[in-house]
């Protein structure tokens, strides 16, 4: 019932962005389509100084740039940068470019993600391949977070502001009870989960659940921080996130979206709101443009969160030695 109330009642209350972003630099990954593109459109309309569309496909990014530019305020500079979240080398190269080319970063949206309905392995996230949902939505996302944090911290010092790093999460994290949580090596178990597993259909929700655990661990370990880091649930929206769905699964998801989904623009309001949520949102899960309560699996298992945080840092160090010192 909470989901239905959110989709039908709270959607009507989502504030349309109206803040001025004059002089600011904002970066959005996954911004050539869906929520990222609509959030970018809001920022451009509201006068951001520099807007970085971070995308995997540069041609699609340029097409999005042209579309966004038609409603942008005068003087907004829009750039298209490449990042492939399936390749740690690309994430590192992007972060290096961000550090060297941008004079400041006021808001960073780690928005790129996917739903993989078939088992695929991604290489480069350690000695062995990692299942795609976990690799992209969890490991790649937090590798990116760790790599761009120094620039946001420098921005805070040099400009006397408090930048915000927003990670796009999902209410789908409630759709798993984390059945593997009693296993001795949590990350290894979920990284190897396959289609023949009885828990395969929970793999996407689990990838988002892990991210909520991580954000709470960051705030617990670093409560006094010059950067606000939060996660936001945009609700069920019309987007191409489920583009890989097939057969009955595709039909069922399409029907559900037709009945209850928010428009992409409405969902994007939650991302923009999270960008100005302020220090009170540090380490928080944002729902319907306000601080919300994540799944009980998260709130009632802090010990699991601490174990996952240790394992995540170990994995990030394996990918990029020294990177966890950026937290």
TrEMBL record:
A Pfam family this chain is assigned to: adh_short
Example of a GO MF term: oxidoreductase activity
Xref: Gene3D superfamilies: NAD(P)-binding Rossmann-like Domain
Keywords: Oxidoreductase
PANTHER family found in the cross-reference section: PHOSPHATIDYLINOSITOL-GLYCAN BIOSYNTHESIS CLASS F PROTEIN, PHOSPHATIDYLINOSITOL-GLYCAN BIOSYNTHESIS CLASS F PROTEIN-RELATED
Protein name from the UniProt record: Short-chain dehydrogenase/reductase
Higher taxonomy: Eukaryota, Fungi, Dikarya, Ascomycota, Pezizomycotina
């Amino acid at each position: 019932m909470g989901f239905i109330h959110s989709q039908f009642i709270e959607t009507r209350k989502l504030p349309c962005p109206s803040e001025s972003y004059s002089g600011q630099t904002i970066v959005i990954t996954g911004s050539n389509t869906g929520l990222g593109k609509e959030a970018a459109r809001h920022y451009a309309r509201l006068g951001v100084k520099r807007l970085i569309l971070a995308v995997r496909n540069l041609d699609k990014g340029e097409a999005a740039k042209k579309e966004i530019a038609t409603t942008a305020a005068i003087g907004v500079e829009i750039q298209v940068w490449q990042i492939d979240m399936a390749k740690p080398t690309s994430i590192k190269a992007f972060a290096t470019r961000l550090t060297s080319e941008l004079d400041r970063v006021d808001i960073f949206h780690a928005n790129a993600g996917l739903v993989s309905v078939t088992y695929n392995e991604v290489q480069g996230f350690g000695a062995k391949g990692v299942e795609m949902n976990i690799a992209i939505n969890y490991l790649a996302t937090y590798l990116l977070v760790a790599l761009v944090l120094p620039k946001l911290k420098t921005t805070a010092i040099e400009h006397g502001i408090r930048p915000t790093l927003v990670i796009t999460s999902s209410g789908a994290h409630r759709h798993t009870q984390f059945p593997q949580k009693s296993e001795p090596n949590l990350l290894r178990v979920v990284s190897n989960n396959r289609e023949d597993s009885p828990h395969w259909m929970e793999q996407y929700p689990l990838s988002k659940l892990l991210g909520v655990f991580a954000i709470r661990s960051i705030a617990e370990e670093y409560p006094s921080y010059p950067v606000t880091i939060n996660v936001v649930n945009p609700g069920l929206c019309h987007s191409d996130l489920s583009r890989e769905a097939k057969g009955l699964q595709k039909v069922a998801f399409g029907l559900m979206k037709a009945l209850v989904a928010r428009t992409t623009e409405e969902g994007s309001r939650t991302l923009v709101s999270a960008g100005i949520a302020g220090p009170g949102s540090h380490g928080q899960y944002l729902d319907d443009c306000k601080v919300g309560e994540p799944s009980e699996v998260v709130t009632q298992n802090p010990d699991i969160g601490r174990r996952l945080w240790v394992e995540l840092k170990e994995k990030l160090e394996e990918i990029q030695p020294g990177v966890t010192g950026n937290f």
